[in-house]
Write a structure and sequence with these properties.
Structural class of chain A: alpha+beta
Structural class of chain B: mainly beta
Number of helices of chain A: 24
Largest sheet of chain A: 6 strands, mixed
Oligomer: heterodimer
Distance between the termini of chain A: 26 Å
Shape of chain B: globular
Order of helices and strands of chain B: EEHEEE
Shape of chain A: globular
Chain lengths: 597, 73
């Protein structure tokens, strides 16, 4: 068995029983690993209707066959579970070094079952797996927990942990590793918290078995060359990080501002990648074996901290009407320490600000800094209160959909399937709107990043306002992304690499006979099993939709003035291309063809 | 006529965030050449916030936004 160790840990948190089980190679190949393999196990072992916080829900930490190998960016892992935010399958990807270390310890995956009676953490050193009390860690911030566990288990140990937000079951809680890398979305940190699992520490000394070292060296060299020569992965992302998008998206007039009331912010440059690079950047902050190094490290008033991604700059920035970069950097750091998804946290504050604007939330409910568009002082304070569920923060911790529903206006939550939309207004980017609406984990940009062709022109430039071909592109991007997410590589490689490159990398590591076509097919299989999980969990196909504002209210001003998203014109073609019914349900024939019956 | 050019990322080096170019009936590439930017250096070209072409003729009040190869997120 190559690429995979062929074994995984099954850890029962209630009984403290630890089993090492054998991974079925055929299943692994069919679903590749990571997101695909985790979803297959969820489908087989968990009733999709289960409450996300019930002990019957499972938490799966899954690597891919390329995780921990000499491939560019080969350090990613996935957290797969049922989401408490959306009720859909959750699969949240993270970089850093934890995933590779888990592989070095000799495991392809960990399945956490049931719930511990008291706070615990798990310490893994190769074959040794031990339960440890986490009483002394409960309540502590991510940085402190990581420092204390590394002091006890060695600085080479890698730590995955939740912060107070996960303990308090915030539906926006992330799982953090290496202090500042996040399996961010869909509330996976709250599932970990619900199981009284504070952290996982891992240290390993094994190598990942490689099928053909010489072939791997050759395809590694070739893929690295493509990544270095590509303008995005070789120059743009290394120089500015993802934050360079602030100005690009704003200049296109599709930059959501004030909770998507506007789509252009004349002061956006104040929180742009260019401004961050000139005023705060200290250095790059790369993940395991990454030649791109988009991560940022900044200094604020003499204190060094991880820098924000584009989505974070936007969520706490313009979406809240704020262009005070320092406060946004501090809010990002707060999210890392508290263990919160920056996209959902920032945009939930933006939704609260609109509720205040309409006086649906009364001023007296907001004990503390006023939650009003443009009030930069509010974001750090209310991020803390959100994590600790203090006062009005208790409502914020439920996410924007449930918050807006409490005040009778769920339509003001800019979300799909209750997960907050990221930083691109789909009224002026038609394909991205279709992708948002059909995403299997709700509002998300990294399930099929159509910004790449519609805005950045990669692999070719599409007219962002056109409908022709967008259903095809959405499906293709979704399927390829599902395969990349399952391989253990970073999605950002796809700016430079294509399906054939991924096939060559997987084949060299695993000894498989993938082609570009079979990589796409595996991705389509994964997409369909995710859809089946969602349908069985009770998520109706009619949930493939966008907030009313984005379908009916034209963008009021700026370069994309007047645009609305025309989802209804794209959905039928999309379902047809997927081989689903006109109502958006996979047919038996299609599932059979994909080997899912 | 005066054309506003908004510059981003490395295009700002030695040029600043914004320049104004005065030319008679220019096309986009004339404006870019006048500030030392070749067509093949440009990854994203917008005219008034919408996709533009290098041979596009500009009219009074038009503005350009130009980016070198940048990134995603």
């Amino acid at each position: 068995m190559y690429g995979y160790h062929g074994k995984y840990l099954r850890i029962n948190l209630k009984t403290q029983e630890v089993k090492v089980e054998t991974l079925d190679l055929e299943t692994a190949k069919k679903f590749i690993g990571g997101r695909g393999l985790g979803t297959k196990f969820m489908m087989d072992e968990v009733d999709p209707k289960v409450d996300a916080f019930s002990p019957e829900n499972k938490l799966m930490v899954v690597t891919g066959p390329l995780t921990g190998t000499a491939t560019p960016t080969g350090g990613r892992y996935m957290v797969v579970t049922k989401s408490p935010l959306t009720g859909t399958i959750a699969s949240s990807n993270s970089g850093g070094f934890f995933g590779a270390e888990l592989k070095f310890a000799g495991y392809d995956m960990i399945i956490f079952e049931d719930k511990s009676d008291t706070p615990v953490y798990i310490n893994i050193v190769d074959d040794k797996v031990e339960f440890k009390s986490a009483d002394h860690l409960w309540g502590k911030l991510v940085g402190q927990v990581t420092d204390e566990l590394q002091a006890e288990h060695g600085e080479k140990a890698r730590v995955m942990t939740i912060g107070p937000a996960g303990e308090k079951l915030s539906r926006l809680a992330a799982i953090m590793n290496e202090k500042d890398r996040a399996a961010g979305r869909s509330g996976v940190g709250a599932v970990m918290g619900s199981k009284n699992l504070k952290a996982v520490v891992v240290k390993g000394s094994n190598k990942v078995p490689i099928y053909d070292e010489a072939a791997l060296k050759a395809v590694f060299k070739e893929s690295l060359k493509k990544i270095r020569e590509n303008g995005v992965t070789g120059e743009g992302l290394p120089t500015y990080g993802t934050a360079v998008l602030v100005n690009i998206i704003n200049e296109n007039g599709v930059y959501p501002t004030n909770n998507f009331q506007l789509a252009y912010d004349e002061n956006a440059d104040d929180i742009s990648g260019e401004t961050m690079a000139s005023d705060y950047l200290k250095r790059k902050n790369p993940c395991f074996r990454c030649p791109i190094a988009c991560g940022r490290w900044v200094e604020v008033d003499g204190v060094e901290m991880a820098g924000p991604e584009y989505e974070t700059l936007w969520a706490f920035g313009s979406d809240c009407g704020i262009t005070d970069l320092k406060e946004v950097l501090l809010a990002n750091n707060e999210c890392n320490e508290l263990g919160l998804d920056t996209i959902s946290a920032g945009t939930t504050l933006a939704a609260a600000m609109e509720l205040r604007q309409l006086d649906l939330v009364k001023a007296e409910e907001i004990e503390g800094e006023p939650l009003e568009f443009g009030n930069a002082k509010s974001i750090v304070e209310w991020t803390k209160k959100m994590a600790y569920r203090e006062g009005f923060g208790d409502k914020l911790a439920e996410g924007s959909y449930r918050l807006c529903e409490m005040y009778g206006r769920p339509d003001l939550s800019m979300s799909v399937k209750k997960q907050e939309l990221p930083a691109y207004d789909p009224r002026g980017i038609q394909g991205q709107g279709l992708q948002y609406a059909t995403s299997n984990r709700g509002g998300c940009h990294v399930r099929g990043y159509l910004i790449s062709p519609e805005i950045l022109g990669l692999p070719e430039k599409l007219d962002k306002n056109a409908l022709d071909g967008k259903a095809f592109w959405a499906k293709a991007f979704q399927d390829l992304t599902a395969a990349i997410d399952s391989s253990g590589l970073c999605l950002f490689t796809s700016f430079a690499l294509g399906a054939d490159d991924y096939a060559a990398l997987i084949n060299a590591v695993c000894g498989t006979d993938h082609t570009g076509d079979t990589v796409f097919a595996a991705g389509e299989r994964i997409w369909n099993i995710e859809k089946m999980f969602n349908l069985e969990s009770g998520i109706a196909p009619s949930e493939d939709k966008l907030p009313r504002r984005l379908l009916e209210d034209g963008i009021p001003e700026g370069p994309s003035k007047g645009s609305v998203n025309q989802l209804d014109k794209l959905l039928p073609e999309y379902y047809e291309l997927r081989g689903w019914t006109t109502g958006g349900i996979p047919t038996d024939e299609r599932l059979d063809e994909l080997g899912l019956k | 006529m005066m054309i506003e050019v908004r510059l981003f990322a490395t295009f700002r080096n030695n040029r600043g965030k914004k320049v104004y170019v005065e030319l008679d009936h220019p096309r986009v590439e004339d404006v870019l050449q006048s500030i030392g930017i070749e067509n093949d250096e440009v990854a994203i070209l917008l005219v008034n916030g919408q996709d533009g072409r290098f041979d596009q003729e500009l009219v009074e009040g038009d503005y350009l936004s130009v980016f070198p190869p940048v990134g995603g997120g």
